[in-house]
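Q: Hi! First time doing this. I have a protein sequence and I read that you can turn it into a structure. Is that right? Here it is:
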Amino acid sequence: MKLRLRLALTAVAVTVPAVFALVQVEHSVRRRTTDEVIIASTLSQMQSGGRERCEATPETWMVRSRAPQRPPWEREGLPDGNGGPPSSTVAPNVPSGNGPASGGPRPGDEGPPRPGARGPLGRRLPPVSLYPFDGQFVSRNPQAPALDDELRKGVQDDGVGVRRYSKADGALVQDLLLRMPWDGGPCEYVLARRVEPAESPEVGLPPLYVWGVPTLILLSAMVVALGPVVQRLRRLTDEVRASSGSRYEQPVTVNGTDEIAELARAFQQARAEIQAQMAHQQAREQTLRDFLANTTHDVMTPLTVLQGHLAAMQQRMRAGEPLESGLMLSAMSEAHYMASLVHNLGAAARLEAGAPQVQHAPVDLNALVSRVLGRHQPIARPQRIALESGVPATQTWVMGDETLLEQAVSNVVLNGIRYGREDGHVAVVLETTRQQTFHLRVIDDGPGISEEERSRILERRFRGNAARTREPQGQGLGLHIVHNVVELHGWKMILAPSEYGGLEVAFTGPLMSPPG
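A: Yes, that's right. Below is the predicted 3D structure, encoded as structure tokens:
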């Protein structure tokens, strides 16, 4: 549903009850004011000579105005009241049904309590008929209507009994039973009867200016108030579309403190998040392209060397010549390097994907150290580098990703082998503390790394001078991966000179209880 249609329906839903309430208030005010006018006029009339004339002829005394047409109750055969339309003139001394046939005025009769007077909202009051009753609520005038219990109870409690009812033709009949300011006599109570015809505002809707003007003002105010809202919404819609069309480069600039401005700020926050995600996605795509390019280059180099060694060995075997041990060791080194390179590239890809790719499970560090040293024995032995270890007698359990942790320790051990000296040593020492932490140290007695290079060695693609000299085809991923794995697990990593002249890499982290 369009906003404009929704607002229009809302305006109608608000206006209809408001108009209904105005009509009810107007009717209530009109009836109350009319009652007060009739009561005041009747009391004034009776106190200024009406009582004497009423008590003189109670059998025939009745006051009503001249009617230009037959009243509704006469058309229905009822002998009471006068329902003619409002008149601007008062016709006093109109005889009752007991008067002379000529219908002319009689001495002793009088006009009603100003039936043609101006009532509430400037409207002329309809005719009012007066009937006398004694203290027993009995009228000597045979044309007087009967009194019901509602009128009697009302006049006894409040001094005025009021009753309204509708007739069959839609006219509204109002009876007011008034107690006079004296006791006794045939005119102790006076019944004032007023008849509103069906077309009267008292029965139907009030005049147009009563409800039409407030309704028009209300609708106009709503239209004026909603105009800026619709304009701001259109502007917000245009800016959001323009921002989307510019790949969210163009900002949303709707300002203010209302709900529309709050919505604009929400769009702006969403835009910033989308831009960050797009930038991250572009960076990952660029990383993937670089990854593929580097992988192709770095894998092809040792693969080409390995193919050359295998071709040379094949030629020697065909010629019946013995294989050279150095050629075999070189081929094994290239194969080991490619395996290490592939493992590092796989670990780097997982780390680039983020934490959701990391599997956390109990890991036995004792077994992990044993596997790492066993895997590197074939490459360390030809270089006469001794691999040693020292681990606790009981299993050492930590929580982490076993594949990534093993690759991290393997990278440090491989660096000690690759850059170590002949007849050197690489040792892995695992210790635990009473504070439920572990210390895993990888120590070598190689050439070491200068302090300046140690501050940058964890950067991706950075390789120290010794590394560039000994292994020019390296990718510089090893220690960078180690650093990322340690951070991902919440451990600490320290690079420092070892007491044997080489490099010491230390890992520290929390232990876990042995799995059940």
